[in-house]
Amino acid sequence: MPNPNTPSSLVSSTPIVLTIAGSDSGGGAGIQADIKAISATGGYACSVITAITAQNTQGVSAIFPIPVEHVSHQLDAVFSDLNIVAVKIGMLADADIIKVVADKLRQYQPQYLVVDPVMVATSGDILLENSAIHALKNALLPLADIITPNLPEGAALTGKPLPKSEADMQAMIDDLRLLGAKTVLLKGGHLEQDENSNDLLILPDRVETLSAKRVNTKNTHGTGCSLSSAIASYLAQGHDLERAAFLGKSYISQAIAHSDELNIGKGHGPVNHFFEGHAALR
């Protein structure tokens, strides 16, 4: 319940972002990374958990999908009470969960929808069942304002070969537009031979390149989750889609650049979501 002493203009302007995703017990990706990224970029995060993973920096050892009726109850709980401006979707695990999420989004009509089509973890573990990809493409992606596939996800969604160069990324543009989302951010982070990490922002009428200097680090766990959450956070704060994508790219690039300041786990460590706060403490 709002504080009666708080101005109504301040209450209504709170940029609330809902993340719908899986839980990462290691804290580096999934719901945990989403909440960190949304908070670090100025949004208020709420969540709907779709699956519980047994996961750390070295990989995923087990996945337990949340019963679909409880996913539905979580969605009703947050949408019926909170003024959710933007929704970020990550891991959905199976077709039934994808369908209920799509139905609830049509029911509640949030202003912005960001979909990170999570299929493969940084460690290489498969996070989305093959049977669910059809439901994702048909029920959910056409509702999105922006989707944020990496190169393996882009290949899986389009049936194209895995891009080996930026020219291959360019060749995927038309097929990605056919998925039905308003905008696509195709992430080029997997082209590790390139000096820069270039992403293609595929708008309806043009393509922009978002570029950042590539950082030599193994601490990249949760980058996709964090980027898509940051974009949703900036959308909720009133930025247009192109600006939100630019700000999200800038945020995640800095979080990666500062990731070696953390010493978390034995494998692919997380990015440094709160790099600004950590810098202030030094």
From TrEMBL:
Phosphoprotein as UniProt keyword: no
The keyword Membrane appears for this protein: no
Pathway: Cofactor biosynthesis; thiamine diphosphate biosynthesis
UniProtKB keywords: Kinase, Transferase
SUPFAM superfamilies cross-referenced by the UniProt entry: Ribokinase-like
EC nos: 2.7.1.49
Positions of the Pyridoxamine kinase/Phosphomethylpyrimidine kinase domain: 24-272
One of the record's GO molecular function terms: phosphomethylpyrimidine kinase activity
UniProt signal peptide: none
Uppermost EC category: transferase
Gene3D superfamilies on file: 3.40.1190.20
Identification of the protein by name: hydroxymethylpyrimidine kinase
